[in-house]
Amino acid sequence: MTAASALQGQAADDRAAVVTVEGGGSFVQGAGDASLLQAALRGGLGLPYECSSGGCGSCRIQVVEGEVESLWPEAPGLSPRDRRKGLQLACQTRACGNATIKVTLDGHCVPKVPPRVMHLTLVSARDLTRDIREFRFAAPGPAEFIAGQYAILRLPDGLRRCYSMSNLPNAEGYWEFQIKRVPGGKASNGLFDMAPGAVIGLDGPYGLAHLVAESARPVVCIAGGSGLAPMVSIARAVGADPARQLDFFYGGRTAADVCGEAHLAGLPGFGDTLRYHPVVSSLDDPLSAGWTGLSGFVHEVVGRHQGDRLREAEIYFAGPPPMAEALQRLLMLDLKVPFGQIHYDRFF
Ligand SMILES: Cc1cc2nc3c(=O)[nH]c(=O)nc-3n(C[C@H](O)[C@H](O)[C@H](O)COP(=O)(O)OP(=O)(O)OC[C@H]3O[C@@H](n4cnc5c(N)ncnc54)[C@H](O)[C@@H]3O)c2cc1C
Ligand code: FES
After folding, report:
1. Dist. CA 273 → ligand 1 center (Å)
2. Range 116-206: architecture per CATH
3. Counting atoms of ligand 1 from 1, which one is nearest the CA of 345?
4. Is residue 251 in contact with ligand 1, taking CB distance under 6 Å?
5. Is the model's pLDDT at 150 over the cut of 80?
6. What number does CATH give the domain 219-346?
7. Each residue's pLDDT tens digit, 11-25
8. Looking at the predicted structure, is the pLDDT value of residue 90 above 80?
9. CATH topology for the 3-109 domain
């Protein structure tokens, strides 16, 4: 992939389209914008969203006027009822020309760090487990994002996938990701096949489940499987304050899948104010032989281990949708943790 094609992400004959939000301003969808959602956020409008991946349905819009194209007509974020009502997912739709859409904007979704499109060069990669690899890319300018956010990586064959940063923002322009190889997965396997020097595109940062810098509450980070990266980034940001309690739970299927401790071990307060709790769910798997630590589903362990203390904490979690949904039920319904203290990304 050349740097130019990595950046472009769509056809060269793209023309700018002006998109008006009924009762809420307008934005321009340009050649660098993969979707209406990305164009709106880049234009400083708070179009509601979560995953940018077509999975969650948070970015549903009604197209009132103008022609649009769907980038993924079967995206699971739209229910049959949504489709009957003619709704579209802003993250999977592009305007073919000027258009008017209907959506209730939300000031909380206005990006705190303006998303940009740039090219990245792979510098190095190293295995963390049998199927999670950490990638380090370099960009020409500073890497600007908030701990816990993600970027959309633009890969060969027009593939776009979201990956969370595991490092901290930095002036040197390094972007680090911890990516799980999905059996048969197009993007993850493509990334695992890349050698240093490979060039891809990045569009970001995005995501609302980022560190709340102004909070002094104790922190609980919960990562399942591929959800390690944003939790490591948040722990790195919080770990700089050894006076703040941080409990970090990592749930892996077998003992061989457990990781993350090495990333935390060098942080101030490790073993004291910063505590790492690995959890294994499949004790009967031969790869868990000899495991004597915490076991069960990570959300159950968090509930048992932290209990009512969760109501006082700022809670961050990331991982597969079933884990995230079990945690939502535990925190919101069972423990009645105030919604404002719960920050999560579901990895569709
Ligand atoms: C906010 C967020 C952050 C994430 N962070 C991480 C991370 O840090 N580490 C990590 O390992 N994974 C992360 N993921 C998951 C990652 O984005 C990929 O879903 C995963 O790597 C599997 O991709 P794949 O192409 O290998 O698998 P595939 O099975 O080829 O693709 C699966 C995913 O691709 C998308 N998709 C499928 N078909 C289409 C289509 N036609 N058009 C558009 N999209 C399509 C869907 O999101 C689907 O879940 C994150 C996901 C989200 C939403
Ligand atoms: S943000 Fe569009 S479906 Fe999740």
Report:
1. 34
2. Beta Barrel (2.40)
3. 1
4. no
5. yes
6. 3.40.50.80
7. 434 579 999 999 889
8. yes
9. Ubiquitin-like (UB roll) (3.10.20)
